[in-house]
Amino acid sequence: MSMMRPDAPIEIAGYQWVPPFARGFVRDLRPRWACEEAGIPYRERLADVTDKPGWLLDVQPWGQVPIMRDGDIVLFESGATLLHLGEKSEALLPRDPQQRAAAISWLMGAFNSVEPWMFEWTNVTAFARGEEWAKLRRPSLEEFIAKRLAPLEKRLGGQDWLGDTFTIADIAMVTVLRAIGGSQLLADHRATQAYVARGEARPAFQRAMSDQLAAFDRNGPPASQGE
Amino acid sequence: MSMMRPDAPIEIAGYQWVPPFARGFVRDLRPRWACEEAGIPYRERLADVTDKPGWLLDVQPWGQVPIMRDGDIVLFESGATLLHLGEKSEALLPRDPQQRAAAISWLMGAFNSVEPWMFEWTNVTAFARGEEWAKLRRPSLEEFIAKRLAPLEKRLGGQDWLGDTFTIADIAMVTVLRAIGGSQLLADHRATQAYVARGEARPAFQRAMSDQLAAFDRNGPPASQGE
C-alpha cells in the first residue's frame, strides 16, 4: 500500500502535471521511492510547473522539485532528501559505519560523477537534438559515459546492489541511469541494465512511480497548455 | 599552522603532481580545507596521476581523488568526505536542525545543480576548445550557467555565506565556482565573484591550497612526463 497520507509530517513537493517527455523522470520520485522502501508516511504538495508558486521558489534556488518538509525543517535537492530520509531508517542507510560511508560515497558518485553526463546526454539526444553541436558532441560524450559505466558494470556483474544491501545509493544510481534507459549505451552494459531493471521492479519503486503519475493523470495540463 | 600530521587517523588521498592546468583544482583541496577550518588533523597520501596505484583504484570506481580514510572507514567522492568531516565539527556543519538541512541542501546543489555545468564549461573552454562542437555549444551553455548563477547572485548580495554561517556548503560551492574564476561569466556576477574571493581569502583555504601545491613542487612530474 502506498505511504501517501494527507496528514503525514513529511511533505514532498512535486508537480501537478508535466509534459509527456518528462513523465516518470521528475525527481520527487526519489524521496517518494525512499519513503515507500522504509514505510515512512508522506504527503504530496504539487506545484504548477508552468507557473511555479512562491512556496517553491522561495525555498529552492532554481525552482526545482523536490523540496521536502519534515515538521519545521525544509530541504531541497533530491540528494539532500535521500540523506535526510536515510537517517530515519536502516532500510535506506545502514548503521554499520563502513556500509554507511560506502552508501554515501556511492550516492555522491551518482549525483556528481555520473548524472552530470546524463544531463548533457539528455540535451544532446533530446532537447538540442536538431542542433549541429549536439550531433558533433554525441560520440565523445557517449565514449566518456561508457568509461563512467565500466566500473559499475564490473561491480554489478557480481552483486545486486552497489553495497551489501539496497540503500539510498541505489535509489540515486538507478534513477540517474534511467535517463539512458532504452538506449544502446545502456544495452551495451548488460549488468548495469539488469541493475536498473531490478530497481524498477521493486514494489516500492512501482508505488512511488504510480503515485507520481496518478497526480499527472488526475490534474492534466494547466489551462495554458490545453487546446 | 597546517593540520597535516604524519600520524593523524584521517588520511586524505591526493596526487603527487599534476600538469599545470590542473594545479589548484584537484579535489582533495575540499577535505583538506574542511580539516583546516575545523582543526582536524589529517595525513596525506599521494598517488601518481600517470600510473594510478591499486590502493586508489580498488576504492574509487573511477580512479579519482580524493578518497579518505578515518580509522577503518574509507570514503570516496569529495562530497562524501565533506559530509563525513561535517559530522565532526560544528564549524563545518551546524547542529541546529534547519541550518544543518540547509547546509546539506546547498552542498547537494553545488554538486548536482551547479558543478555539472562547470564540468562541461571546462570541456568547452579548455579540453575541447579547438573543436567545432565546443565553439557552437558555448553560448547556450553560458546562458544556462548564468541562470544557475542568478539565484546565487541574489542571495550572496545580502549575506557572506550560503547559510547564516560558513559551512561545508560553502567549501563545496566556492570550489565549484572556482572553475569559472577569471571568466567574464563570473565577473558578470559580482556578488558571487566576491563570495568566491571571500572563500579563497580564508586562512584555512590558503593553508589547504599551500599544502596541496607544496606536494606538487616537492615531487615534480613523474619520469614519464619529464624531458
Fold and architecture overview:
Chain A is an alpha+beta fold and 227 residues long. Chain A has 2 domains: 10-91 and 204-221, Glutaredoxin (3-Layer(aba) Sandwich), CATH 3.40.30.10; 97-202, Up-down Bundle (Glutathione S-transferase Yfyf (Class Pi), Chain A, domain 2). Chain A contains 9 helices and 4 strands. Chain A has helices spanning 29-38, 54-57, 78-86, 97-127, 132-156, 168-177, 184-187, 190-200, 203-219; strands spanning 10-15, 43-47, 67-70, 73-76. In chain A, helix 4 runs antiparallel to helix 5. The mean pLDDT of chain A is 96.
The CATH topology label of the largest domain in chain A is: Glutathione S-transferase Yfyf (Class Pi), Chain A, domain 2
Q: What is the straight-line distance between the termini of chain A?
A: 36 Å
Mean pLDDT of chain A: 96
* Total beta strands of chain A: 4
Instruction: Classify the oligomer.
Output: homodimer
CATH architecture of the largest domain in chain A: Up-down Bundle
- Into how many domains do the coordinates of chain A divide? 2
**How much of the sequence of chain A is in beta strands?**
5-15%
Largest sheet of chain A: 4 strands, mixed
Q: Strand order within the widest sheet of chain A?
A: 2-1-3-4
Helix content of chain A: 40-55%
What does the radius of gyration of chain A come to? 18 Å
Query: Helix segment count of chain A?
Result: 9
Using CB atoms under 8 Å apart, which protein chain pair has the greatest interface?
A-B, 43 and 43 residues
Broad shape of chain A: globular
Protein name (chains A, B): Glutathione S-transferase family protein
Domain GST N-terminal (chains A, B): 15-93
InterPro entries (chains A, B): Glutathione-S-Trfase_C-like, Glutathione-S-Trfase_C_sf, Glutathione_S-Trfase, Glutathione_S-Trfase_N, GST_C, Thioredoxin-like_sf
Domain GST C-terminal (chains A, B): 96-223
